[in-house]
């Protein structure tokens, strides 16, 4: 095992370990890493000696902060297409994780954002700790939640997913459990013990029981106490009406949410709300990933993704100049363009049942 590799693989007992290994970049995913994880899953599925897969992140800061945003920024500025190739394989991997026939255990410790959610929250045993911070931050960089994020957020109770998608807020362990983004809380000091115990499991049932044995009650989250105004405000049919409701309901936290939303890309906000509403009717993860591929490819060619990454990641002036600059300027036709079929460039996951990761 070469410890310089961006994805490390080894086996302990009957558990195949996948370690995302770019700690200086907070384990941000690039195309080579996606291909390596997909290959590792294919091998593990066919290996009868492997009972389960365990995915973790190297370093102390988190599992994965998302895709390699700098590379996507440079590609978009240059008018390239490698990012769209990356997303094609990344979304296929997300679908493959959801379909993986053996227990897929994800340790969602520390920062887990964007693509990091994609390689964890579609698994069937998802573990959070007191250090977990989970988010889909795309609207803040002029993008739209992807990697199956609109599928996950659309399935959250009430309008919690809409709140998280539009504000791009991060949540801790308790709220991740409430929103259906995780299954178990395990204190970080027990992770080493859990990993060692999993190595001795011979069956899928044993894997699940071992995780449950190491789990504990999660710390209280914050969202449950705000469900009333979240559900009331975010069930509105437009972003403008959502913001108006948040601003006028008389709850300080709601007013803060309105102010936060108004700092995001107006186009990304409207497309995100439409994507979430549409996702609820699509039914399957594969169909939602197909939709997300359309929105991602369209966002890639627009002005807000480059400007958002510049403001948040490159120059860090935190002052993006969105185009259009206001919600009122984003038309229904502007939004509809993001959902238009791509012809022979379609991802096509929903049309190919059982597609391999």
TrEMBL record:
InterPro entries: ClpP/crotonase-like_dom_sf, ECH_dom, HIBYL-CoA-H
Keyword Hydrolase: yes
EC numbers on record: 3.1.2.4
GO MF, one example: 3-hydroxyisobutyryl-CoA hydrolase activity
Domain annotation Enoyl-CoA hydratase/isomerase: ranges: 15-339
Keyword Hydrolase: yes
Enzyme class, spelled out: hydrolase
Reactions performed catalytically: 3-hydroxy-2-methylpropanoyl-CoA + H2O = 3-hydroxy-2-methylpropanoate + CoA + H(+)
Protein name stated in the entry: 3-hydroxyisobutyryl-CoA hydrolase
Species assigned in the record: Streptomyces atratus
């Amino acid at each position: 095992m070469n410890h310089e590799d961006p994805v490390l693989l080894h086996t302990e007992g009957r558990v195949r370990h996948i370690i995302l290994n770019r700690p200086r970049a907070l384990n941000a995913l690039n195309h080579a890493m996606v291909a390596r994880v997909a290959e590792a899953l294919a091998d593990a599925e066919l290996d009868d000696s492997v009972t389960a897969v365990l995915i973790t992140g190297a370093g102390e800061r988190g599992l994965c902060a998302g895709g390699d945003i700098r590379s996507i920024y440079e590609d978009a500025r240059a008018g390239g297409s490698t990012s769209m190739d990356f997303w094609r394989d990344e979304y296929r991997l997300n679908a493959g994780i959801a379909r993986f026939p053996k227990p897929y255990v994800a340790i969602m410790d520390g920062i887990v954002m964007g693509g990091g959610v994609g390689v964890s929250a579609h698994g069937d045993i998802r573990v959070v700790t007191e250090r977990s911070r989970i988010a889909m931050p795309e609207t803040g960089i002029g993008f739209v939640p992807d990697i199956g994020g609109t599928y996950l957020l659309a399935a959250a109770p009430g309008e919690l997913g809409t709140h998280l998608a539009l504000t791009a807020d991060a949540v801790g362990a308790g709220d991740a459990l409430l929103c259906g983004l995780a299954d178990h809380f395990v204190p970080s000091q027990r992770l080493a013990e859990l990993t060692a115990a999993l190595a001795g499991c011979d069956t899928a049932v044993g894997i699940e029981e071992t995780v449950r044995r190491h789990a504990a009650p999660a710390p209280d989250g914050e969202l449950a106490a705000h469900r009333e105004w979240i559900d009331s405000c975010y069930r509105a049919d437009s972003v403008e009406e959502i913001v108006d409701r948040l601003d006028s309901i008389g709850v300080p936290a709601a007013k803060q949410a309105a102010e936060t939303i108004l700092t995001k890309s107006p186009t990304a906000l409207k497309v995100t709300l439409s994507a979430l509403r549409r996702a609820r009717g699509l039914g399957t993860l594969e169909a939602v990933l197909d939709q997300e591929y359309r929105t991602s490819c369209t966002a890639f060619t627009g002005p807000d993704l480059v400007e958002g990454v510049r403001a948040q990641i490159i120059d860090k002036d935190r002052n993006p100049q969105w185009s259009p600059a206001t919600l009122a300027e984003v038309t229904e036709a502007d939004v509809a363009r993001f959902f238009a079929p791509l012809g022979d460039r379609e991802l096509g996951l929903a049309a190919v049942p059982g597609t391999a990761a």
